[in-house]
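Course assignment 3, question 2. Fill in each field.
Student: A.L.
Task: Predict the tertiary structure for the chain below.
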Amino acid sequence: MVRAVARWILALALGAIGIVHFVSTRGFRVVVPDWATKATRLDKEAIIIASGAAEVALAAGLIALPWERRRIGVATAAFFVAVLPGNVHQWRTHRSTPGLDTEARRFGRLFLQPLLVLWALWSTAEPAPRRPTALRRPRRRSR
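Answer field:
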């Protein structure tokens, strides 16, 4: 139950931020390192849209494809790892975005990323099977 709630919260957060990527691309440009445009041969706008599309797709998968839960969890964790360079770039270049407008917040955001990776993996893991509790019979005392 707790994993399911955590998975839904993660999916809703991913979906919401993914939609924001479509609506407010300008605010995300500072997060995209210049080397990413060279490596992908895409401009910053396209990278932001692709990132938002990935977030929305992962969110939808977390909710709508329970039989693929583990794979989508791994893909979500991989996505969080893939966007970490953008967070590092934002911190190193001292660029602000909404909610990340101080040095401390930008630095703190770096530590959130591993937690998001763990959240994605934990919330999509199969719970350990419960062991049946054996009914113990009282031992007979030998005389």
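Instructor remarks: Residues 2-124 form one domain. The mean pLDDT is 88.
Grade: pending
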